[in-house]
Specification:
The protein is mainly alpha-helical and about 90 residues long. The chain has 2 domains: about 40 residues, Membrane-bound Lytic Murein Transglycosylase D, Chain A; about 55 residues, Membrane-bound Lytic Murein Transglycosylase D, Chain A (Roll). The chain is built from 4 helices and 2 strands, in the order ααβααβ. The chain has a two-stranded antiparallel ribbon with strand order 1-2. It is globular. It starts with a helix and ends with a strand.
């Protein structure tokens, strides 16, 4: 699938779909990749406070997992824009 196809199927703009998922139009979709069709929250649901980074996991992956905006995740943790968290890093999600 492509962003255009997915956006059309769910009757939203491609720009909005990319924005909801903190993605750039040049991003290549991967099979099984989680996409949000509406705006994500500023913080994770109750019951989740921290996440321990697993090997190969990115902050974008964590933001998608908890349904929160990447910018909010960076801000909660005082991480710079392109910060790469190491395996074992404790990341605040709420």
């Amino acid at each position: 699938d492509t962003f255009n196809k997915i956006a059309a199927e769910f009757e939203i703009s491609t720009r909005r779909l990319l924005s909801y998922n903190d993605l750039h139009k040049r991003h290549l979709l991967q099979p099984g990749e989680l996409l949000y069709l509406e705006k994500k929250a500023a913080k994770a649901q109750k019951g989740y406070k921290y996440h321990i980074v697993k090997q190969g996991e990115t902050l974008w992956d964590i933001a998608q997992l908890y349904g929160i905006r990447l910018g909010k995740l960076l801000g909660k943790n005082n991480f710079p824009k392109h910060f790469q968290a190491e395996t074992g890093t404790k990341v605040r999600v709420r």
